[in-house]
Amino acid sequence: MSTLETLQDILIEEFDLKRDQVTPGAELAALGVDSLDMLELMFKIEDRYKLAIRDDIPTTLTTVNDVVVYIDGLLARQGARGPDPADLHAPT
Amino acid sequence: MRRVAVTGLGVVAPLGACTDDLFTNLTAGRSGIRTLAAEPLRSLRSPIGAPVEFDGSRHFAAAKLRMLDRVSQFALVASARALTDARLDLSAEPRERCGVSVGTGMGGAGTTDEGYHTIYAERSDRVKPYTVLASMTNAAASWIGIDYGICGPNLTYSTACSSSAVAVGEAARSIWSGDVDVMVAGGTEAPLTYGVLRAWEAMRTIATADPHDPSASCRPFAQTRSGLVLGEGAAFLILEEWNRAVARGAHIHAELTGYGLTTDAGHITRPSVEGQAGAMRAALASARLSPGDIDYVNAHGTATLQNDSVETAAIKEVFGERAYRIPVSSTKSMHGHLLGAAGALEFLIAIASLERRVVPPTMHLDIPDPACDLDYVAGGARGGVALRAVMSNSFAFGGTNAVLIAETADPDRRRHGATPR
To answer: What is the extent of the structural domain holding B48?
Structure first.
């Protein structure tokens, strides 16, 4: 399953959204996902991908696709060897 | 003189999802107290409680549910039921003339418990982002205000076991004074979590589980009483200025005519006869009633050693010889102690008694304590009673004593309720 599909499933399940709403270009704010919801969303993503995401989530994540790119970036760095301590504590 | 009409009643309670079911179960002497069999609750010294059958996901969408502690879920559902019962559409009301008044002792205790588990037990820093917003004591009241666009006062009272009697009494006072016309008032509590139950257990105030019948573990006024049993749930009332309730053709369950408030200022847990008696006298004075006018007392009756004998003595001090002729019952024997929700729930039950002319019993009162020698309506409900005025007592750790009085809805009552105190 692609990162996009996984993220779409989480959004549909946790935020009461329909599949046709969570297009790659959809803006998270318009979907009712606010800053606290983003933290909740990151917990779900951590669990799903066994990732460790540091506290400061980039404020530039505006669309569904932005989050996909962000997750893929983390996976590229952490995926093969587990969480990188640098990602836990240092700013990206 | 402004008067306060009770036009809506709503509950989420052990023994009932509506006032009718609750009252039917109470008058049948059924107990909602049971063994708490789930892990880790079963490891408690006395694993008993009065839980509510309640699934939040049946009432709230996932995105909202994660922001709501169980205590707020109860409050939102019970207040919605009260508004439905009142047939009141708040969106058509002047928003600043309506308010919310909620009592809770421990607020979102389950969320706090879960957060500490994450930090200390799992040694994780992944505390849920909504922990503060779900656990803050005023969350339930805030959500009611948000859901209905209520822009007048939004207040939360936390005086332990008298919290929601205070919330209802203060709501009535704000209508009497002219500040507001409609109040959504009640109490909510969700204390059946492991951390909270362990804390209560440590204080040695929880009843010993009856080995033969756990549902009979709470025995108010009995010589065999061994403590309280915690329950969960919420109870809400819609209070309205009398004339506007009449003008819109509302069904008026009762008139709230009396509210008395005193503080022991003594021991943090030990109750005082003077403090309790003072609150009952203040409520009578507020309603302009004399002790001879009260037809039923819904007692605080926690089944702790301290409370029941002190409350009995206080009732005797206020009512004199008449104390022996007034039915006094503790419905906590069946629904348990709802802490911050207890006062509103029991006042609601007293109003249901008034409307139905039936006094619910005190159950499991097999052997009376010699110090408790009033008419506790032991073992079975009493019907066909002439009820015009009923009193509900709520006392608390910390010493805040609150007493409420309701009378039958009488359009011509000359006394006209209370003077704002």
So the answer is: 4-247
Whether the CB-CB separation of B214 and B170 falls below 8 Å is answered with no
Position B417 in a domain: no
CA nearest to B168, candidates B16, B346, B333: B346
Question: Mean pLDDT, to the nearest integer, of B68-85?
Answer: 98
How confident is residue B411, by pLDDT bands cut at 50, 70 and 90? confident
Within a domain: residue B415? no
Q: Which residues of B are catalytic?
A: 161, 300, 337
- Encode pLDDT of B318-343 as tens digits: 999 999 999 999 999 999 999 999 99
- CB-based contact A14 B130, cutoff 8 Å: no
- Same domain as B97, residue B15: yes
Evaluate whether B184 touches B144 at the Cβ level (below 8 Å). Answer: yes
Residues of B in contact with A39 (CB under 8 A): 129
> Count of domains in chain B?
2
Q: B60 at the A interface (CB within 8 A)?
A: no
Residue whose tokens read 């004199």:
B320
pTM summary value: 0.93
The mean pLDDT of chain B is 96
User: Residue B165: pLDDT above 80?
Assistant: yes
Sign of CA dihedral B279, B390, B253, B33: positive
Q: How many Cβ atoms from other residues are within 10 Å of residue B57's Cβ?
A: 9
- DSSP annotation string for B359-402: EPPBPS--SB-TT--S---BSS-EES---SEEEEEE--TTSEEE
Contact B128 A40 (CB under 8 A): yes
Q: How far is CA A51 from the centre of its chain?
A: 11
Contact B167, B402 (CB under 8 A): no
Q: Does residue B367 share a domain with residue B232?
A: no
Tokens for A57? 């989530």
Does residue B420 form part of some domain? Answer: no
Residue B392 falls within a domain, yes or no?
Answer: yes
Chain A: nearest CA to B136, how far in angstroms?
Answer: 16
Give the closest residue to A70 by CA, choosing from A45, A89, A50.
A45
The residue among A36, A43, A48, A55 with the most chain B CBs within 10 A of its CB, best to mutate, is A36
By C-alpha distance, which of B228, B317, B318, B310 is closest to B272? B310
Cα–Cα distance for residue pair B146/B150, rounded to 1 Å = 7
| Torsion, CA B117, CA B122, CA B127, CA B132, rounded to 10 | 10
